[in-house]
Amino acid sequence: MARISSSKMREHLKVYFIAGSTNVSDPLPEVLQKAIDGGITIFQYREKGDGALTGEAYVTLGKELKELCNKGGIPFIVNDDVELALALGADGVHIGQEDDNVLDVRQKIGDRILGVSAHTLEEARKALQDGADYLGVGPVFPTSSKNDTREVCGPQFVATLRGQGIDAPIVAIGGISITNAREVVEGKADGLSVISAISQAGDPREAAKQLKEVW
Ligand code: TZP
Ligand code: MG
């Protein structure tokens, strides 16, 4: 296997759904299946916050979600947890600046997809140099799905990074919904990453479909 190409990565990033069991009111596998039916292009299992699953329940849910992604033909990414990603045979891992070192994670996961959150030009350059396949940039808008975020950077920050020579695949995150998704696309991101716009939608399938149509 070889590292994923930038063009393939960009395609996968278009509609990037992130969720864990605490983000949904209906069972997550049901919500994920609807999101897949609506056209999401990649999924990240991010089990965090009050009441997050641990131990066997955490692993079992991950396994179920991975199978749905496999059947749906989309990559399954695990947030933060390299051991779980390897145990489940995930397609990749996403880490933040406060998580494990990018070089170490790249070494552990081989050619699997590696996403890294970056908030400055320096963080972006370093992550790519150390082996990231894509960058997560945000929050581009205020969000209530994560309380320890950096300052809101606005959708144009992606275009700023482009102007500073970062041409790697970038997915924007934070407060993205169908009403502001166009601004993100115009800000030169390759993809829209959302939690609540799909996980809290009355109709996750329709929400995913509408986000896809923005492209
Ligand atoms: N990282 C930066 S903002 C955010 C994460 C995980 C939360 C995004 O959630 P939402 O509901 O799409 O604003
Ligand atoms: Mg993290």
TrEMBL record:
Mg(2+) binds at residues 80, 99. It holds the Pfam family TMP-TENI. Residues 15-198 form the Thiamine phosphate synthase/TenI domain. Its cofactor is Mg(2+). Pathway: Cofactor biosynthesis; thiamine diphosphate biosynthesis; thiamine phosphate from 4-amino-2-methyl-5-diphosphomethylpyrimidine and 4-methyl-5-(2-phosphoethyl)-thiazole: step 1/1. 4-amino-2-methyl-5-(diphosphooxymethyl)pyrimidine binds at residues 44-48, 79, 117, 146. Its EC number is 2.5.1.3. 2-[(2R,5Z)-2-carboxy-4-methylthiazol-5(2H)-ylidene]ethyl phosphate binds at residues 143-145, 175, 195-196. One of its GO terms (molecular function) is thiamine-phosphate diphosphorylase activity. Binds 1 Mg(2+) ion per subunit. InterPro entries: Aldolase_TIM (IPR013785), ThiamineP_synth_sf (IPR036206), ThiamineP_synth_TenI (IPR022998), TMP_synthase (IPR034291). It catalyses: 2-(2-carboxy-4-methylthiazol-5-yl)ethyl phosphate + 4-amino-2-methyl-5-(diphosphooxymethyl)pyrimidine + 2 H(+) = thiamine phosphate + CO2 + diphosphate; 4-methyl-5-(2-phosphooxyethyl)-thiazole + 4-amino-2-methyl-5-(diphosphooxymethyl)pyrimidine + H(+) = thiamine phosphate + diphosphate; 2-[(2R,5Z)-2-carboxy-4-methylthiazol-5(2H)-ylidene]ethyl phosphate + 4-amino-2-methyl-5-(diphosphooxymethyl)pyrimidine + 2 H(+) = thiamine phosphate + CO2 + diphosphate. Gene3D superfamilies: Aldolase class I (3.20.20.70). Keywords: Magnesium, Metal-binding, Thiamine biosynthesis, Transferase. Belongs to the thiamine-phosphate synthase family. NCBIfam families: thiE (TIGR00693). PANTHER family: THIAMINE-PHOSPHATE PYROPHOSPHORYLASE, THIAMINE-PHOSPHATE SYNTHASE. Condenses 4-methyl-5-(beta-hydroxyethyl)thiazole monophosphate (THZ-P) and 2-methyl-4-amino-5-hydroxymethyl pyrimidine pyrophosphate (HMP-PP) to form thiamine monophosphate (TMP). This is Thiamine-phosphate synthase. It comes from Evansella vedderi. The lineage of its organism: Bacteria, Bacillati, Bacillota, Bacilli, Bacillales.
